[in-house]
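Section 3.1: Structural characterization of target chains.
Under the original work plan, the team committed to producing a structural model for every single-chain target entering the pipeline before any wet-lab resources were allocated. The record below documents one such target. The sequence was received from the expression subgroup and is listed exactly as submitted; it comprises 246 residues.
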Amino acid sequence: MDDGGRLADVLVALGSVRPLTPDEIARSRGFEERLQIEAVYAGNALDGSTLTLDETARVIATGLAAAGKPLRDQVDALGHAEALRYVDELIATSRALTADRLRHLHALAFRRSRPDIAGRFRTAPATGVTDYSPPDAVFVPESIDGLLADYTARRDDEHPVILAADLHQGIVDIHPFETGNGLTARLAMNFHLMQYGYPLTIVRPEDGDRYADAIRRTRTTGGAHAFRHVLIAAVRDSLDRYRAVL
């Protein structure tokens, strides 16, 4: 399938993906709280956390340790939950996504487990990346500024799900932080989606291989279709789950 066909396929998939209405959002408040816990569990599991969903819920609710589980997994759950609350605050106050706010999301997520790098752009070559070469550390600030300028310019014209996918892909491609780039990208992605009435969207741990493969294929092919399709499916899943409880 050529690029035009792939784009048409994406647009067809988007046809059934609409935001929640204001009434639906109001009726989903209780469910949203449960989904935030699931988002923390799933997001951290994608990055190797050993906590179960129930353990994640207990750690967030009580701050008490989960017996036999690594302390880092537990403090990362608390940090991720705090970062999600900051996303809610940004949306409630209609604030824009800036480089400083992106760094603050990362800082909240990792200040307990990695205070040495929390909220700081990397100053050394990216590690753990084998399929492409992220920008040199000296170019990270301007790369992020360029990504966010493009994001801002497209906000009024681009479908929110498409732009959220491209924002996520841009962050993980720049790889601005020493660690936690995927989690920070998913936070930024959800910031944009939720601003436009879409629900908190979760990449399930069981979909982790497909998610990572789509990121790699988007990088290697130079086209955005692979990751856009993955996000469309995740958004549709979240919408279905929300509407099932309304």
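The first helix runs from residue 3 to 14.
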